[in-house]
Amino acid sequence: xxxxxxxxxxxxxxxxxxxxxxxxxxxxxxxxxxxxxxxxxxxxxxxxxxxxxxxxxxxxxxxxxxxxxxxxxxxxxxxxxxxxxxxxxxxxxxxxxxxxxxxxxxxxxxxxxxxxxxxxxxxxxxxxxxxxxxxxxxxxxxxxxxxxxxxxxxxxxxxxxxxxxxxxxxxxxxxxxxxxxxxxxxxxxxxxxxxxxxxxxxxxxxxxxxxxxxxxxxxxxxxxxxxxxxxxxxxxxxxxxxxxxxxxxxxxxxxxxxxxxxxxxxx
Length: 267
Fold this sequence. Notes:
Layout: H1 2-7, H2 11-14, H3 17-33, H4 43-47, H5 52-55, E1 79-80, E2 92-93, H6 104-113, H7 121-137, E3 141-144, E4 150-153, E5 164-169, E6 175-179, E7 199-203, H8 209-213, E8 222-225, H9 233-240, H10 252-255, E9 263-266
Parallel strand pairs: 1-2
Antiparallel strand pairs: 1-4, 3-4, 5-6, 5-7, 8-9
Helix pairs in contact: 3-6
């Protein structure tokens, strides 16, 4: 692709491999977070008809157990590089529709290279089409036929790891969760539309409410609870003798004042 960039007078892009890799990293992270990852469930949607009926397999009951997209469930936003009919409503368009009309991809290009987008609309659109065609050639993404062509990440090229890190933007404080082995994510420009910062600081996320309440060091069959002061000994015995032992009281561990001795309560 470097030869194409030089031929089209984009030497400042071609001569900085590191910055270009960060730019592609940001695009792939956006695709991942928007659900643009290939899956057999998307075959009909990507290759037969770009509509909700094909996405939800309405007339084909092979996937009748799957929860349908629509309403409160966001559609997977595959990437398109050609405007065709109404595909711009369903695809995440990487190209500019008309002169002076910015989108996320053109704005992100300006943030990464810290230059005003002096190029014309046609040149930028050619750049994005060349980029996605190149990523398809090397196998990072694959292409469906509907909507003038739609792109999704090839799942064979996704890192699956149980060791993750959270990196934070040095400007807007938004966070990105990536695998620990992903060294390219740090230094990538922030994905937020109006932010000009970069992901640079690794942070430890605070435990949410349920992670704090459910102590994994305690055996799952037992929970150490304290008895509220308005319970007397007789009430405690009655509660312990109940036939149903399926009641779980996680907040009791956090909120009750210990008056009686702590007990192991079988739940």
